[in-house]
Amino acid sequence: MSDPQQVPSDARPDAECSRAGCRNLAVWAVVWRNPKIHSPDRRKVWVACDEHRDFLRDYLAAREFPVVVERLEVAAGVEGAT
Ligand SMILES: [Zn+2]
Hints:
globular, binds zinc ion
Protein backbone atom coordinates (compact mmCIF):
# COMPACT_ATOMS: atom_id res chain seq x y z
CA MET A 1 0.00 0.00 0.00
CA SER A 2 1.29 3.44 -0.81
CA ASP A 3 1.39 6.03 1.89
CA PRO A 4 0.06 9.43 0.80
CA GLN A 5 1.39 10.98 3.99
CA GLN A 6 4.97 10.25 3.02
CA VAL A 7 6.30 13.77 3.30
CA PRO A 8 8.97 15.02 5.67
CA SER A 9 7.37 15.77 9.00
CA ASP A 10 9.17 19.11 9.16
CA ALA A 11 7.72 20.29 5.86
CA ARG A 12 4.05 19.52 6.34
CA PRO A 13 1.40 22.19 6.40
CA ASP A 14 -0.95 21.95 9.32
CA ALA A 15 1.97 21.02 11.53
CA GLU A 16 3.02 22.11 14.97
CA CYS A 17 5.61 24.83 15.37
CA SER A 18 9.20 23.58 15.08
CA ARG A 19 10.23 25.44 18.22
CA ALA A 20 10.98 22.92 20.94
CA GLY A 21 8.12 22.68 23.39
CA CYS A 22 5.72 24.76 21.31
CA ARG A 23 2.44 23.10 20.39
CA ASN A 24 1.00 26.00 18.41
CA LEU A 25 -0.23 25.52 14.88
CA ALA A 26 2.46 26.52 12.44
CA VAL A 27 1.47 29.20 9.94
CA TRP A 28 4.92 30.09 8.62
CA ALA A 29 7.53 28.12 6.74
CA VAL A 30 11.12 29.02 7.54
CA VAL A 31 13.10 27.81 4.54
CA TRP A 32 16.83 27.55 5.00
CA ARG A 33 19.97 25.58 4.27
CA ASN A 34 23.45 25.26 5.65
CA PRO A 35 25.82 26.26 2.82
CA LYS A 36 28.59 24.18 4.41
CA ILE A 37 26.73 20.89 4.12
CA HIS A 38 23.80 21.48 1.77
CA SER A 39 23.97 21.93 -1.99
CA PRO A 40 22.46 25.18 -3.36
CA ASP A 41 19.24 23.47 -4.43
CA ARG A 42 18.62 21.96 -1.01
CA ARG A 43 15.73 23.36 1.01
CA LYS A 44 15.29 22.63 4.67
CA VAL A 45 11.96 23.71 6.09
CA TRP A 46 11.01 24.50 9.63
CA VAL A 47 7.48 25.54 10.38
CA ALA A 48 6.65 28.19 12.92
CA CYS A 49 3.73 29.81 14.68
CA ASP A 50 3.40 33.59 14.70
CA GLU A 51 5.19 33.78 18.03
CA HIS A 52 8.29 31.87 16.99
CA ARG A 53 8.69 32.85 13.37
CA ASP A 54 11.19 35.58 14.17
CA PHE A 55 12.98 33.43 16.74
CA LEU A 56 13.63 30.66 14.25
CA ARG A 57 14.55 33.04 11.46
CA ASP A 58 16.97 34.92 13.68
CA TYR A 59 18.45 31.66 14.97
CA LEU A 60 19.37 30.70 11.42
CA ALA A 61 20.33 34.18 10.28
CA ALA A 62 22.73 34.45 13.21
CA ARG A 63 24.57 31.46 11.75
CA GLU A 64 24.69 33.19 8.39
CA PHE A 65 22.48 30.57 6.78
CA PRO A 66 20.34 31.73 3.86
CA VAL A 67 16.82 31.90 5.28
CA VAL A 68 13.48 32.84 3.74
CA VAL A 69 10.17 33.04 5.55
CA GLU A 70 7.09 32.07 3.61
CA ARG A 71 3.43 31.90 4.52
CA LEU A 72 2.36 28.29 4.90
CA GLU A 73 -0.43 27.20 2.63
CA VAL A 74 -2.96 26.15 5.19
CA ALA A 75 -5.16 23.32 4.11
CA ALA A 76 -8.67 24.52 4.81
CA GLY A 77 -10.04 21.04 5.14
CA VAL A 78 -12.45 21.77 2.31
CA GLU A 79 -11.92 19.85 -0.88
CA GLY A 80 -12.06 21.74 -4.15
CA ALA A 81 -15.29 21.99 -6.09
CA THR A 82 -14.49 19.20 -8.45
ZN1 LIG B 1 5.80 28.33 18.28
